[in-house]
Amino acid sequence: MENEAGKAYDEAWKAYDEAWDAYDEAGKAYDEAWKAYDKAGKAYDEVTKAYVEVWKAYVEAWKAYFEARKAYVEVGKACDEAGRAYIEAEKAYIEVGKACDEAG
Fold first, then answer.
1. From CA 25, how far away is CA 30, in angstroms rounded?
2. How far apart are CA 6 and CA 18, in angstroms?
3. pTM listed for this prediction
4. How far apart are CA 77 and CA 55, in angstroms?
């Protein structure tokens, strides 16, 4: 009986050691997984910050484009007005020429 009790004790102790080893390995795996998770979180934060900076730059570039576009439209309007003034000046010149021809 004592021999059987000793064997049972040895087997229980061996099972305990194996369970402890498995627990220790699981702890190591958890630590490694946590490190990877933490690294991924930091990378995500960096990517998010970079995206925000790119978006801000895009918004500023769009504002600059919009302002340049408004200036372009204003130049176009000025050219149109100048063209109309030129046409009116040409009409006046023609009328002066006709008046000179009639007078002369």
1. 8
2. 18
3. 0.50
4. 33
The DSSP call for residue 1 is: -
Quick one: tokens of 94?
A: 């023609």
| Location of structure tokens 């958890």 | 30
Cα distances from 29 to residues 21, 32, 76, in angstroms, run 12, 5, 69
Of the CA atoms within 13 Å of residue 61, those in its CB half-sphere come to 6
Using CA atoms, how far apart are residues 23 and 7, in angstroms rounded to an integer?
A: 24
Q: Residue type at 91?
A: K
What is the per-residue pLDDT across 54-83, written as a single tens digit (0 to 9) for each? 999 999 999 999 999 999 999 999 999 999
| CA torsion through residues 27, 31, 32, 33, sign | positive
Q: Which helix (H) or strand (E) holds 104?
A: none
Calpha distance 78→93 (Å, rounded): 22
User: Residue type at 71?
Assistant: A
